[in-house]
Amino acid sequence: MKLVKTAVATALMFSAAVSAMDARYQDRTGNLVADVPQNEAEWANPSTLIFAYTPVEDPAVYADVWSEFLAHLEKETGKNVRFFPVQNNAAQIEAMRSGRLHIAAFNTGSTPLAVNCAGFAPFTMMAGKDGSFGYEMEIITHPDSGIKAVEDLKGRNLAFTSQTSNSGFKAPSAILNAEYGLKPDADFKPAFSGAHDNSILGVAHKDYDAAAIANSVLNRMLARDVVKPEQFTSIYKSQTFPTSAYGTAHNLAPELQEKIQQAFFTFNWEGTKLEEEFGRNGEAQFIPITYQEHWEVIRTIDNANNVSYTCS
Protein backbone atom coordinates (compact mmCIF):
# COMPACT_ATOMS: atom_id res chain seq x y z
CA MET A 1 0.00 0.00 0.00
CA LYS A 2 1.34 3.42 -0.93
CA LEU A 3 1.03 5.98 1.85
CA VAL A 4 1.97 9.66 1.86
CA LYS A 5 1.95 12.40 4.49
CA THR A 6 -1.30 14.36 4.89
CA ALA A 7 -2.61 16.63 7.63
CA VAL A 8 -5.59 14.95 9.28
CA ALA A 9 -7.38 16.05 12.45
CA THR A 10 -6.86 13.77 15.41
CA ALA A 11 -9.21 13.10 18.30
CA LEU A 12 -10.05 16.10 20.48
CA MET A 13 -8.01 14.91 23.45
CA PHE A 14 -4.80 14.47 21.43
CA SER A 15 -2.53 17.17 20.01
CA ALA A 16 -0.68 17.22 16.68
CA ALA A 17 2.81 17.20 18.16
CA VAL A 18 5.55 14.61 17.70
CA SER A 19 4.44 11.07 18.58
CA ALA A 20 5.81 9.90 21.93
CA MET A 21 4.81 7.89 24.98
CA ASP A 22 3.42 10.07 27.74
CA ALA A 23 6.03 11.08 30.32
CA ARG A 24 4.17 9.34 33.15
CA TYR A 25 5.06 5.92 31.62
CA GLN A 26 8.41 4.16 31.13
CA ASP A 27 9.35 1.74 28.36
CA ARG A 28 12.49 0.27 29.89
CA THR A 29 12.41 -2.87 27.73
CA GLY A 30 12.12 -1.06 24.40
CA ASN A 31 9.00 -2.94 23.27
CA LEU A 32 6.99 0.31 22.80
CA VAL A 33 4.67 -0.53 25.73
CA ALA A 34 4.70 0.95 29.24
CA ASP A 35 6.36 -1.31 31.80
CA VAL A 36 5.10 -2.10 35.29
CA PRO A 37 6.24 0.70 37.64
CA GLN A 38 9.51 -0.05 39.43
CA ASN A 39 8.05 1.19 42.71
CA GLU A 40 5.76 -1.55 44.09
CA ALA A 41 3.77 1.10 45.95
CA GLU A 42 2.45 2.17 42.53
CA TRP A 43 1.11 -1.28 41.66
CA ALA A 44 -2.69 -1.55 41.53
CA ASN A 45 -4.50 -4.59 42.94
CA PRO A 46 -8.20 -3.61 43.11
CA SER A 47 -10.86 -5.84 44.65
CA THR A 48 -13.12 -5.20 41.64
CA LEU A 49 -11.79 -5.29 38.08
CA ILE A 50 -13.46 -3.14 35.41
CA PHE A 51 -13.63 -4.52 31.86
CA ALA A 52 -14.65 -2.61 28.74
CA TYR A 53 -15.12 -3.73 25.16
CA THR A 54 -14.37 -1.29 22.37
CA PRO A 55 -17.44 0.80 21.39
CA VAL A 56 -17.69 -0.37 17.76
CA GLU A 57 -21.42 -0.93 18.29
CA ASP A 58 -24.03 -0.27 20.96
CA PRO A 59 -22.43 -1.39 24.28
CA ALA A 60 -25.74 -2.97 25.33
CA VAL A 61 -25.24 -5.58 22.61
CA TYR A 62 -22.02 -6.79 24.24
CA ALA A 63 -22.75 -6.72 27.98
CA ASP A 64 -24.48 -10.10 27.68
CA VAL A 65 -22.05 -11.46 25.07
CA TRP A 66 -19.15 -11.09 27.53
CA SER A 67 -20.99 -12.33 30.64
CA GLU A 68 -19.65 -15.92 30.55
CA PHE A 69 -16.11 -14.78 29.91
CA LEU A 70 -16.28 -12.32 32.80
CA ALA A 71 -17.49 -15.11 35.10
CA HIS A 72 -14.43 -17.13 34.01
CA LEU A 73 -12.24 -14.07 34.65
CA GLU A 74 -13.65 -13.81 38.17
CA LYS A 75 -12.84 -17.46 38.83
CA GLU A 76 -9.27 -17.17 37.55
CA THR A 77 -8.42 -13.93 39.37
CA GLY A 78 -10.50 -14.30 42.53
CA LYS A 79 -11.78 -10.77 41.91
CA ASN A 80 -15.17 -9.25 41.20
CA VAL A 81 -15.41 -8.16 37.55
CA ARG A 82 -17.77 -5.54 36.13
CA PHE A 83 -18.59 -4.68 32.52
CA PHE A 84 -18.15 -0.97 31.76
CA PRO A 85 -20.30 0.19 28.78
CA VAL A 86 -18.15 2.91 27.20
CA GLN A 87 -19.75 5.14 24.58
CA ASN A 88 -16.69 6.31 22.62
CA ASN A 89 -12.96 5.73 22.22
CA ALA A 90 -11.88 8.93 23.96
CA ALA A 91 -13.90 8.06 27.07
CA GLN A 92 -12.42 4.55 27.13
CA ILE A 93 -8.86 5.87 26.89
CA GLU A 94 -9.48 8.47 29.59
CA ALA A 95 -10.98 5.80 31.89
CA MET A 96 -7.78 3.71 31.70
CA ARG A 97 -5.54 6.76 31.97
CA SER A 98 -7.32 7.82 35.17
CA GLY A 99 -7.17 4.33 36.71
CA ARG A 100 -10.90 3.58 36.42
CA LEU A 101 -10.48 0.84 33.76
CA HIS A 102 -8.29 -2.23 34.31
CA ILE A 103 -8.92 -4.63 31.42
CA ALA A 104 -10.04 -3.64 27.96
CA ALA A 105 -10.36 -4.31 24.28
CA PHE A 106 -9.32 -1.25 22.27
CA ASN A 107 -10.18 -1.12 18.61
CA THR A 108 -7.39 -1.33 16.06
CA GLY A 109 -7.02 2.39 15.46
CA SER A 110 -7.22 3.55 19.08
CA THR A 111 -4.77 0.92 20.40
CA PRO A 112 -1.66 3.08 19.72
CA LEU A 113 -3.33 6.02 21.48
CA ALA A 114 -4.23 3.81 24.44
CA VAL A 115 -0.70 2.38 24.64
CA ASN A 116 1.01 5.76 24.57
CA CYS A 117 -1.52 7.93 26.38
CA ALA A 118 -3.17 5.57 28.85
CA GLY A 119 -0.54 2.95 29.68
CA PHE A 120 -2.45 0.16 27.94
CA ALA A 121 -0.48 -3.12 27.75
CA PRO A 122 -1.97 -5.34 25.02
CA PHE A 123 -1.20 -9.06 24.98
CA THR A 124 -3.86 -10.84 22.93
CA MET A 125 -6.46 -10.64 20.18
CA MET A 126 -9.10 -12.94 18.72
CA ALA A 127 -8.24 -15.37 15.94
CA GLY A 128 -9.63 -18.37 14.10
CA LYS A 129 -8.94 -21.96 15.08
CA ASP A 130 -6.05 -22.00 12.61
CA GLY A 131 -4.51 -18.88 14.13
CA SER A 132 -5.55 -16.57 11.29
CA PHE A 133 -6.80 -13.13 12.28
CA GLY A 134 -7.81 -9.76 10.97
CA TYR A 135 -10.44 -7.77 9.14
CA GLU A 136 -10.56 -5.42 6.18
CA MET A 137 -11.65 -1.84 5.78
CA GLU A 138 -14.36 -1.59 3.14
CA ILE A 139 -15.99 1.42 1.56
CA ILE A 140 -19.64 0.57 1.08
CA THR A 141 -22.50 2.33 -0.67
CA HIS A 142 -26.15 1.57 -1.35
CA PRO A 143 -27.17 0.22 -4.78
CA ASP A 144 -29.17 3.36 -5.67
CA SER A 145 -26.31 5.80 -5.00
CA GLY A 146 -24.89 5.72 -8.51
CA ILE A 147 -21.44 5.16 -7.01
CA LYS A 148 -19.69 2.34 -8.87
CA ALA A 149 -16.05 3.04 -8.00
CA VAL A 150 -13.98 5.02 -5.49
CA GLU A 151 -13.54 7.83 -8.02
CA ASP A 152 -17.31 8.35 -7.97
CA LEU A 153 -17.10 9.60 -4.36
CA LYS A 154 -16.24 13.05 -5.75
CA GLY A 155 -18.93 15.48 -4.72
CA ARG A 156 -20.68 12.94 -2.48
CA ASN A 157 -20.85 12.48 1.30
CA LEU A 158 -18.74 9.77 2.96
CA ALA A 159 -19.34 8.64 6.53
CA PHE A 160 -16.44 7.95 8.87
CA THR A 161 -16.94 6.56 12.38
CA SER A 162 -14.56 8.40 14.72
CA GLN A 163 -11.15 10.00 14.35
CA THR A 164 -9.44 7.29 16.42
CA SER A 165 -10.78 4.40 14.32
CA ASN A 166 -8.41 2.67 11.91
CA SER A 167 -10.95 1.32 9.43
CA GLY A 168 -13.50 4.02 10.21
CA PHE A 169 -11.18 6.96 9.55
CA LYS A 170 -7.39 6.68 9.54
CA ALA A 171 -6.86 3.95 6.93
CA PRO A 172 -9.45 5.27 4.45
CA SER A 173 -8.13 8.82 4.84
CA ALA A 174 -4.61 7.70 3.94
CA ILE A 175 -5.78 5.43 1.12
CA LEU A 176 -8.17 7.93 -0.48
CA ASN A 177 -5.45 10.58 -0.53
CA ALA A 178 -2.50 8.38 -1.57
CA GLU A 179 -4.20 6.13 -4.12
CA TYR A 180 -6.97 8.36 -5.49
CA GLY A 181 -5.99 11.96 -4.67
CA LEU A 182 -9.29 12.47 -2.85
CA LYS A 183 -9.30 14.88 0.09
CA PRO A 184 -12.08 15.63 2.57
CA ASP A 185 -14.08 18.82 1.96
CA ALA A 186 -12.19 19.51 -1.27
CA ASP A 187 -13.36 16.35 -3.07
CA PHE A 188 -16.03 14.77 -0.83
CA LYS A 189 -18.07 15.79 2.19
CA PRO A 190 -17.01 13.90 5.35
CA ALA A 191 -19.41 13.02 8.15
CA PHE A 192 -18.83 11.27 11.47
CA SER A 193 -21.40 8.72 12.62
CA GLY A 194 -19.73 7.80 15.92
CA ALA A 195 -19.71 4.01 15.39
CA HIS A 196 -19.50 1.35 12.69
CA ASP A 197 -23.09 0.20 13.17
CA ASN A 198 -24.28 3.80 12.77
CA SER A 199 -22.37 4.12 9.49
CA ILE A 200 -23.68 0.79 8.21
CA LEU A 201 -27.27 1.61 9.12
CA GLY A 202 -26.82 5.09 7.65
CA VAL A 203 -25.88 3.61 4.26
CA ALA A 204 -28.67 1.01 4.48
CA HIS A 205 -31.21 3.77 5.13
CA LYS A 206 -29.60 5.99 2.46
CA ASP A 207 -28.67 8.73 4.93
CA TYR A 208 -25.08 8.50 3.65
CA ASP A 209 -23.94 8.00 0.08
CA ALA A 210 -21.08 5.81 1.30
CA ALA A 211 -19.19 4.81 4.45
CA ALA A 212 -15.79 3.44 5.46
CA ILE A 213 -16.33 0.52 7.85
CA ALA A 214 -14.78 -2.61 9.35
CA ASN A 215 -16.20 -5.57 7.49
CA SER A 216 -16.08 -7.67 10.66
CA VAL A 217 -18.82 -5.46 12.13
CA LEU A 218 -20.83 -5.61 8.90
CA ASN A 219 -20.54 -9.41 8.85
CA ARG A 220 -21.87 -9.70 12.40
CA MET A 221 -24.77 -7.35 11.64
CA LEU A 222 -25.62 -9.36 8.54
CA ALA A 223 -25.52 -12.60 10.54
CA ARG A 224 -27.93 -11.12 13.11
CA ASP A 225 -30.26 -9.93 10.29
CA VAL A 226 -29.89 -6.32 11.40
CA VAL A 227 -29.22 -5.45 7.75
CA LYS A 228 -29.50 -7.32 4.44
CA PRO A 229 -26.77 -8.01 1.83
CA GLU A 230 -28.85 -6.41 -0.94
CA GLN A 231 -28.67 -3.06 0.88
CA PHE A 232 -24.94 -2.68 0.15
CA THR A 233 -22.33 -2.57 -2.59
CA SER A 234 -18.63 -2.61 -1.75
CA ILE A 235 -16.36 -0.40 -3.86
CA TYR A 236 -13.08 -0.88 -1.96
CA LYS A 237 -11.53 -3.56 0.23
CA SER A 238 -8.20 -3.01 1.99
CA GLN A 239 -5.41 -5.28 3.08
CA THR A 240 -6.03 -7.24 6.29
CA PHE A 241 -5.53 -5.39 9.59
CA PRO A 242 -5.22 -6.77 13.14
CA THR A 243 -8.43 -6.87 15.15
CA SER A 244 -9.07 -5.26 18.54
CA ALA A 245 -6.26 -5.63 21.08
CA TYR A 246 -7.01 -6.96 24.56
CA GLY A 247 -4.85 -6.08 27.50
CA THR A 248 -4.49 -4.51 30.92
CA ALA A 249 -3.53 -1.29 32.57
CA HIS A 250 0.28 -1.33 32.81
CA ASN A 251 0.33 -0.73 36.57
CA LEU A 252 -1.67 -3.77 37.67
CA ALA A 253 0.37 -5.98 40.00
CA PRO A 254 2.41 -8.46 37.88
CA GLU A 255 0.82 -11.51 39.53
CA LEU A 256 -2.64 -10.13 38.76
CA GLN A 257 -1.67 -9.43 35.14
CA GLU A 258 -0.51 -13.05 34.82
CA LYS A 259 -3.84 -14.32 36.16
CA ILE A 260 -5.75 -12.11 33.72
CA GLN A 261 -3.68 -13.35 30.79
CA GLN A 262 -4.23 -16.94 31.93
CA ALA A 263 -7.98 -16.31 31.98
CA PHE A 264 -7.96 -15.22 28.33
CA PHE A 265 -5.87 -18.17 27.17
CA THR A 266 -7.80 -20.81 29.12
CA PHE A 267 -11.32 -19.68 28.25
CA ASN A 268 -13.31 -22.43 26.53
CA TRP A 269 -15.26 -20.80 23.69
CA GLU A 270 -17.37 -23.84 22.80
CA GLY A 271 -21.09 -23.20 23.24
CA THR A 272 -20.64 -19.70 24.67
CA LYS A 273 -22.19 -16.39 23.72
CA LEU A 274 -18.70 -15.22 22.77
CA GLU A 275 -18.49 -18.03 20.21
CA GLU A 276 -21.99 -17.26 18.92
CA GLU A 277 -21.19 -13.59 18.36
CA PHE A 278 -17.56 -13.59 17.21
CA GLY A 279 -17.75 -16.97 15.50
CA ARG A 280 -19.65 -15.09 12.81
CA ASN A 281 -16.23 -13.72 11.83
CA GLY A 282 -14.57 -17.13 12.19
CA GLU A 283 -12.97 -16.21 15.53
CA ALA A 284 -12.59 -19.02 18.04
CA GLN A 285 -9.71 -18.28 20.41
CA PHE A 286 -7.39 -15.69 21.93
CA ILE A 287 -3.82 -15.73 20.64
CA PRO A 288 -0.70 -13.99 22.02
CA ILE A 289 0.38 -10.80 20.26
CA THR A 290 2.90 -8.00 20.68
CA TYR A 291 2.08 -4.38 20.00
CA GLN A 292 5.53 -3.84 18.50
CA GLU A 293 5.01 -6.45 15.78
CA HIS A 294 1.30 -6.70 15.12
CA TRP A 295 0.56 -2.95 15.12
CA GLU A 296 3.43 -1.92 12.85
CA VAL A 297 1.12 -1.37 9.86
CA ILE A 298 -1.23 0.73 11.99
CA ARG A 299 1.63 2.93 13.18
CA THR A 300 2.63 3.36 9.52
CA ILE A 301 -0.88 4.55 8.67
CA ASP A 302 -0.83 6.90 11.65
CA ASN A 303 2.50 8.28 10.47
CA ALA A 304 1.02 8.89 7.00
CA ASN A 305 -1.88 10.76 8.61
CA ASN A 306 0.47 12.75 10.89
CA VAL A 307 -1.34 11.37 13.93
CA SER A 308 0.15 12.11 17.33
CA TYR A 309 -0.02 9.88 20.39
CA THR A 310 0.74 12.72 22.82
CA CYS A 311 -1.92 13.67 25.37
CA SER A 312 -3.26 17.13 25.96
UniProtKB/TrEMBL annotation:
Residues 48-281 form the Solute-binding protein family 3/N-terminal domain. It holds the Pfam family Phosphonate-bd. Residues 1-20 form the signal peptide. It comes from Vibrio ezurae NBRC 102218. Transmembrane segments: none annotated. This is Phosphonate ABC transporter substrate-binding protein. It comes from the Bacteria. One of its GO terms (biological process) is transmembrane transport. Belongs to the phosphate/phosphite/phosphonate binding protein family. Keywords: Signal. Gene3D superfamilies: Periplasmic binding protein-like II (3.40.190.10). One of its GO terms (cellular component) is ATP-binding cassette (ABC) transporter complex. The keyword Cell membrane does not apply.
